[in-house]
Amino acid sequence: MGRLSEEQFIELVQKAERDSFKSPGKYKLQLALFALLGYVVIFSVLFVLIVLVGGTVGIALLSSSIFLLLLKKKLIFMILAAIWVFLKALWVKFEPPTGYRLERNSYPALFSEIDQLTRSLKSLKIHQVLVTDELNAAVVQSPKYGIFGGQQNTLILGLPLLLALSPTEMRAVLAHEFGHLSGNHSRFSGWIYRVRITWSRIMNSYENTDSFGASMMRSFFDWYAPKFSAYSFALARNNEYEADDISAELTSPETAAKALVNVYVSAPYIEQDYWSKLIKSADDSASPPKTPFKDLANFLKHSPIARDEFVKRIEKELEVKTHYSDTHPSLNDRVRSLTSEFVIPEPVKRNAAEVWLGDRYQAVLTHFDKKWYEDNRQAWKNRYDYVQNARASIVDFKSKQPDELTDDELWEYASYTNEFEDAEVAYSLFSLYQKGHPDSIGAAYYVGKYLLNNNRPEGLSQLRVAFRSPNLLTEVANLGYSFLIEQGEQDKAEKWWQDAADAYKFHQEVYEERENISIDDNFRWPEIGDETLAHLKKRLKSQKNVGSVWLAEKVLKLDTSVPVYIIAFSPKGFFTRTDNAAQKVANALNLDFPIFVVCLKGDSKKFGKKIRAIGKRIL
Q1: What integer is the mean pLDDT of 427-451?
Q2: How far is the C-alpha of 412 from the C-alpha of 433, rounded, in Å?
């Protein structure tokens, strides 16, 4: 079992597309049965739970002698443990959305708009409206009863989006979001839309749960949810077109298209021309601005993007093709499905926030201004201090010859110069550093990036070195691919992208190998430095519930650069759950190298014995 690779996902999506085109009815039936499979598994677990509980109670009522025998043989505790395992497996916690809540009585214009749209569409009731600081709008469904549903529907309105769009454009956006939940169009599509979200959220909820029952459920949903997502992809993409059609019906095709275009342009414009410049000012100002959202409102009103720049941005966006990485079609495809003529929105005179928030408009802006200031005040000061230190360091480094600097100083000099001064000078410094450190991934990255930015293909060989870094891989993949496409080297670009995908897969396998252990892994006598071992023993001795301890090392197949240790300990004192004891010990160690902890009692007893047999006793 496991998640689908990109190739497997695309292959299953393409099969679904063929099935839906060839036989729409059969495809929907298969999809419905696949959707129901998740519920069958959940309710099967619930049925087993009910049988266990009912059987236990029945035995106690019908035959006290059998009940006492079960109690004596401790079988009753095994039954109760099984019940507990199943209960925990079914208990999935969903974090509710957060934001600034808008009360109906205080925002009559907004709620009148919402009510009108939900009535027209016969869509699900909106239970609460939250405003966030993101440029987005969405309807989030939060299950009241965990895995069993009972949805609470929350409308999320991003304040930057309200500031960027006119009321009619914002109405089109809301109509699109409500369209996914509409009763006017395919109820089946709406149901599948909700099931896709539910299974995805359940899978993610199980991801960080360690109980045995949850592990069983996680294994199923790790297999099931990605496959359901892939097979329902064709319908989900069609849902986006349907929601756009609904938006056009409730406003107009031109308005729906304008809203789409405006959203695609506003997001990067606000990020690049407002937020990036505002954050950049931290380099020279010790205190952050106190009214960033009020200033954003004024910026959008008085400094709208120039028409020629608007057209350039849209033309670039229209070049993007629809891809399997997202159910949302490309802007080009969405606009063409709405109108035959390309439309450019007019400058917004009164934004949706002003109209819909009414006399509470300024109060909402003030709330987000205060919150932003408090959230960013310390980070702003840290950035200011960092920049001042960097500038002072550059002055100091310039007073010396590069060969007089230590390796660390040369790297700092190159990095600071690249960030604050001249890329060409930084390139020469990174190149100098690379001569002394030919295996440096960071130096190869900066040198390669500079070379590609200056249209020099030899930068590709440098960037290929950076494939070894999982943190740089995404950017390196995009840099090389874009460069080769611009050079007209389509085949080489595809090869570069595939090589990056292979490197990503390798890094994922390395991560899995390092972050997981099982009794089936190979372990050996640990190779550990005296200083590190002394530090480990000191931390263990400080734990009053830790008795004897054995240390082993996991045998790694992919990357042996950093060892992975595992300790097995015998607990002292009383524990209701030994897995909790192991976790508490692991948390208390707080070491700067990877280490796993198992207990010689409880569920991990067998595992612990294996470590004790192979490893070195250190306490």
Answers
A1: 95
A2: 11
pLDDT digits (tens, 9 = 90+) for 503-532: 999 998 888 888 888 888 899 999 988 888
Q: What does the block give as tokens for 460?
A: 């590709």
How far apart are the C-alpha atoms of 556 and 185, rounded to whole Å?
Answer: 54
Three-point CA angle 296, 297, 303, nearest 5°: 80
Which helix (H) or strand (E) is 154 found in, with range? strand 151-158
Higher pLDDT, 551 or 188: 551
Instruction: Write the DSSP string, 550-614.
Output: EEEEE--SS--SS--EEEEEEE-S--S-HHHHHHHHHHHH--SS-EEEEESSGGGHHHHHHHHHH
CA distance 588 to 570: 16
**CA separation for the pair 134, 263 (Å, rounded):** 12
CB contact at 8 A, 596 and 586: yes
Take residue 538 and report the two structure tokens written for it.
């000191």
Separation between Cα atoms, residue 356 and residue 359, nearest integer Å? 9
Cα separation, 572 vs 550, whole angstroms: 15
In whole angstroms, give the CA distance from residue 351 to residue 109: 13
Q: Are 155 and 122 in contact (CB under 8 A)?
A: no
Poorest-pLDDT segment among 222-226, 460-464, 530-534? 222-226
Using alpha carbons only, give the angle 139, 141, 146 rounded to the nearest 5 degrees. Answer: 165
Q: 186 falls in which pLDDT band (50, 70, 90)? A: low
C-alpha span between 469 and 441 (Å, rounded): 7
SS (H, E, C) 303-358: CCCCHHHHHHHHHHHHCCCCCCCCCCCCHHHHHHHHCCCCCCCCCCCCCHHHHHHH
Average pLDDT for 312-319: 85
Residue 209: pLDDT above 80? no
Residue-wise pLDDT tens digits, 249-308? 999 999 999 999 999 888 889 999 999 999 999 999 999 999 999 999 999 999 888 888
| C-beta pairs of 11-17 under 8 Å, 24+ apart in sequence | 12/227, 12/230, 12/231, 12/233, 13/230, 13/231, 13/233, 13/234, 13/324, 15/231, 16/230, 16/231, 16/232, 16/233, 16/234, 16/235, 17/233, 17/234
Residues 6 or more apart from 82 whose CB is under 8 A from it? 52
Q: Are strands 128-132 and 151-158 parallel, antiparallel or unpaired?
A: parallel
Q: Which helix (H) or strand (E) holds 506?
A: helix 490-515
Longest pairwise C-alpha distance within the chain: 93
Contact 89, 216 (CB under 8 A): yes
pTM of the model: 0.71
- Token pair of 220, please? 């199923």
Question: Where are the alpha helices (H) located in 271-306, listed in sequence order?
Answer: 276-280, 292-302
